[in-house]
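Run Putative DNA-binding domain-containing protein through structure prediction, thanks.
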Amino acid sequence: MSTLADLQQRFQQSILLDHPTPGLFAAEGAVLAGGMSVYLQAYRARLTAALADNFLVLQRALSDDAFAVLAHAYIDAHPSHFRSIRWYGHRLVEFLAAAPERLPHPALLDLARMDWAMRTAFDAADATTLTADDLAALQLQDWPQRRFTPLPSLQMIDLTWCVEPIWKALDADAAATSEEPQPSVHVLLIWRPTLDCCWRSSDTCEAAALRALTLGASFADCCTVIAESGVPEPAQTAAGFLQRWIAEGLLAKD
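Sure, done. The structure for Putative DNA-binding domain-containing protein is below.
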């Protein structure tokens, strides 16, 4: 006779494999076996819905049927291991990058990247933003070693296609442009200064400076990074970046 633990294990395995394991309902009868289909369908339906919520724009770019096929393939490869279903899909971009043939157009991978980064930024910890008055209060001798910290919500993603107009249209539930997305290697910044996420593209120099800040670089270190990008006046460029980041609410107050 099966123990409760054995029955529970086979029950879980049946759901993960999408069909009852042999002998699971041998003693319980056909009524319980028929009821098993409810659990089989509910498991995949719930995870598919979670993926559609976390990748809303990608789901809208694909048809419902195409997204369901993609979701089921991902569920098979990566069963949920999170207590919160919010984080389900954290490896979908990696999954698609490893098998790009699953998407009808390579630009859709960048839509997925943007989807996940937007959701991650939205759920990030709150922080008080650094203001121009805070910057004005900084003593001249403190500037070289001063460390400016980006908001916890800041996401920096490398994109290879200009997908932002398409993402914006589909996020608003509007019809996306029929024009083909154009190849464009760039960095997209996404952050949440208040209740809503902001996003914009960044050039190579600015992205390098921001990445240095996220690693704890000082203002002097940041100037060095900018100088290595070939900018003739790195300190002035760094100061200009700071002014823009503060105006955009991109830096956190210590």
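The longest helix spans residues 30-54.
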